[in-house]
Design goal:
globular, mainly alpha, 4 strands, two-stranded antiparallel sheet
Amino acid sequence: MNERKPQTDASARSFFKMPHTYAIIMGILLIAVILTYTLPAGQFDREKQDGQTVVIDGTYRAVESAPVNLFGLFEAIPKGMEAGAAIIFYIFLVGGVFGIIRQTGAIESGINQLINRFGQKGHIMIPMTMFVFSVAGATIGMAEETIIFVPIGIMLARALGYDAMTGAAIVSLGAAVGFAGGMLNPFTVGVAQSIAEVPLFSGLGYRTAVYLVFLVVTIVYVMNYAQKVKKDPTKSLVHDLEQHRKEETTTFSRFSKKHLFVLVVLVGGITLNVIGIFEWGWYLTELTASFLIIGLLAGIVTMGVNRTFESLIDGAKAVTFGALIVGFARAIVVILEDGRVIDTVIYGLSNAVGQLPTSLAVIGMYIVQLITNFFIPSGSGQAATTMPIMAPLADLLGIERQVAVLAFQYGDGLTNMIFPTSAHLMAFLAIAGIPYDKWLRFVWKLFAIWIVLACGALLLAVFLGVQ
């Protein structure tokens, strides 16, 4: 009997296992097909205004039904890939470039250098480390990449008299705040704004201000916990882990002139991209070209030609999940458009929230994004799924599309630190040896604060008319 019990438990867990993200998307595709048979077909008139294709309020009308058959479901996937081609290749190539940067070891060695230099100054190291990772999250979309730094964070925290929870938090929460702030995040804000036809990385000032508020609050939260643990180690949420911990053996190469060269090229390239966006009107094509120059220059000088292109391919492979899901998600829109019911969905949503004050409507949009992220943890995939509906919905509700993008990015980025469907959350917890339930006990109050701050930021954005 004792030998069979573990198999029974495993079977029970597998029965309730969360479906694969692509399986969820396929399920949504099937639902979209069913909607083309059950919803009345309808259409809004649209027109170009200031470079945006906007829905004209009051023009919704019934049109002839055009239900999509089962073959049309699968046909919509390559159509979705074609419709999202610019974004998909952007993600592939930029991911490849960051694969080169990672392979050089410059980021790891640079952070390790900071730890060696300031490692005994705990009151400085926590905010400094969190700031560094937040900048990486805000500019290059660092998320899964933080996993390799978790052992370093834990070593740092323990050397300063803290615990593994503190070490994991300074790395992961720092990056999460930057990722959610997303001022120059190419994988979330860049994708969402391009779909919403909003100028790329516009609203930078407002996003930066909100990001700084989130960052300060998060640093204070982590430091309060760290000081509590330092005063009384039994207050640690992972006290049992600390009692039985093993010494980590993670090592990193010595910081060299080559590493410095790579970091200078990376910072210089990102600075050039910012100038290109705001001064020269750069868009996805120009940004992709610029990133390629950054990656090839940094890689060829430090690693040689062959390793550079091998790293480019490896980096592109690493983002295949997020890149292809954009095409699958766009297929949902293709089905709804071909079936002539996407405007019916928009019309229904606008009627449902149209009687509410604008402030409540934008909070409703935010809640939709929060829920969506549980099922679609990919930021670019969520943008491709929701923004084609949220952008015209914002038009009808009299909300700036920029605010709809804000609702998306806060609904996507912050939940990655609490939803178990987030792959990199579960990965770094596994590496840190921290059970999910204990992480939940640590982070739930901070997450609640984040929710309040996000709602406040959205309401203020509506009030200020952020564009």
